[in-house]
Design a protein that fits this description.
- The protein has a single domain, classed as Nuclear Transport Factor 2, Chain: A (Roll), CATH 3.10.450.
- A hairpin with a 5-residue loop joins strand 3 and strand 4.
- It is rod-shaped, with a radius of gyration of 22 Å.
- 36% of the residues lie in helices and 33% in strands.
- It has a five-stranded antiparallel beta sheet.
- The protein contains three helices and five strands, in the order αβαββββα.
- By secondary structure, the chain is of the alpha+beta class.
Amino acid sequence: MKIQWLVLILVELLVLILVILRNHAPLSAPSGGFNLIQDFNDQHVTDMANFAVSEFNKQTGATLKFEKVIKGESQVVAGRNYHLIISTSNSLHSIYNIVVYDRPWDHFRNLTSFIPVIDDDYVFYYTLNQPSLID
């Protein structure tokens, strides 16, 4: 009889521990999903945008100057992808859609995409609507 009570108590404790652990799971983004960036002035976000403009200038000989992040989202992968809409100066086009891949633990950063946004409606649409920038 004592063994049955002991087993019952152990099972209840195990269930209680599992419930506690499940309710206190980390609130980080799931791997693979995009999450809107809330603070466009965050130092790390502006570092990504500045890196993209600097790399683009190196690769093309352009003289763009980063102004601000208009919209952005990030994706957790084996590192993090930053998909940003940025504004620049010193260019025929002033709005760009960029992607930067960042792995800070091994100091690796790569400009994946740097595309001018020709249609201002694109920026207007994605500034007003909150869904993912990638449709």
